[in-house]
Amino acid sequence: MKFVSRAEWGAQPPKQDWAYVESTLGVKVHYEGTEVPADLVNHHEWCAGRVRDIQAAHMANLSEGWIDVAYNAIICPHSYVFEGRGLHHETGANGNQPLNRAHYGICGMVGSSGLTQPTDALLGGLRDAIEWLQQEGGAGPEIKGHRDGYATDCPGDPLYAWVQAGAPRPGGGGARPGGGGGVVGGGGSGSSSAPPWPGEDLSLRDPMLHDDNVRRWQQRMADRGWSITVDGWYGQQSRSVCEQFQQDSTAHGWPLVVDGVVGPATWRASWERPVS
Ligand SMILES: [Zn+2]
Ligand SMILES: [Zn+2]
Fold it and tell me: Which residues surround ligand 1, an ion (CB under 5 A)?
């Protein structure tokens, strides 16, 4: 686990001592619920400052009366686990005191706009934090979302789908989040697991690339509703569709480099990004 202690991220001390909890039924997952910059995936150097801002906002929230950042941990898109209230301290995030006593609360750095899709690294970090709380904090096996038992959208559909799938560690043994259904892509609205990366960039070149990988990607884009001829030739039209898809993805919280080349990230997004 890539752990960042309170001292390392520059936490303020809590306003008063945390309430001790010997054990909990498990862990509830949260998200930020606001706009998170889509570009955050490329800027881990922003993450500690974001955690400080979240703590400051919580401690300034007089209606909630929080003594500290509400979460036991905050996990960034680069898989770092920022210590919040930490082990054996009651969370303030779950909605009311019985809910706070029953489960720890951890927050993934995705929002309701901008960056809305958890990276694999974020899911891995959430998994790390859950196991840390289970192994050292007396957390039981339950893994739930904030919306379980409380009226809220939190943790958003993509993270909630991952929670409902059992919060699988991404990548391990091919266990993509959400299994075969690609549910992490957001409610299963047309998304599915990508086929294996074919190992070659699909790009406009001379002589023109023509093979079954191009055909497969074109068929996928046609299935997604793009106007594209499925002929196996990566020509101007494919390049243009690719660029538009990359721009559209970036604008919808799934950042891709806009270069008109189907590389590994664009290949994966072509299948796993929800159809919008
Ligand atoms: Zn929440
Ligand atoms: Zn980060």
Answer: 30, 146, 154
Q: What is the pTM of this model?
A: 0.65
Instruction: State the distance from the centre of ligand 1 to the C-alpha of 43, rounded, in angstroms.
Output: 24
**Ligand 2: centre distance to CA 103 (Å):** 25
Whole-angstrom CA distances from 131 to 84, 118, 123, 137, 143 are: 15, 18, 12, 9, 11
Q: How far is the CA of 110 from the centre of ligand 1 (A)?
A: 11
Quote the tokens at residue 83.
């210590």
pLDDT truncated to tens, each residue of the chain (276 aa)? 999 999 999 999 999 999 999 999 999 999 999 999 999 999 999 999 999 999 999 999 999 999 999 999 999 999 999 999 999 999 999 999 999 999 999 999 999 999 999 999 999 999 999 999 999 999 999 999 999 999 999 999 999 999 999 999 987 533 333 333 333 433 334 457 888 888 889 999 988 899 999 999 999 999 888 889 999 999 999 999 999 999 999 888 888 999 999 998 999 999 988 886
CB-based contact 76:83 (threshold 8 Å): no
Domain boundaries, the chain: 2-185, 212-272
CATH architecture of the domain with range 2-185 = 3-Layer(aba) Sandwich (3.40)
Comparing C-alpha atoms, which of 21, 6, 115 is closest to residue 54?
6
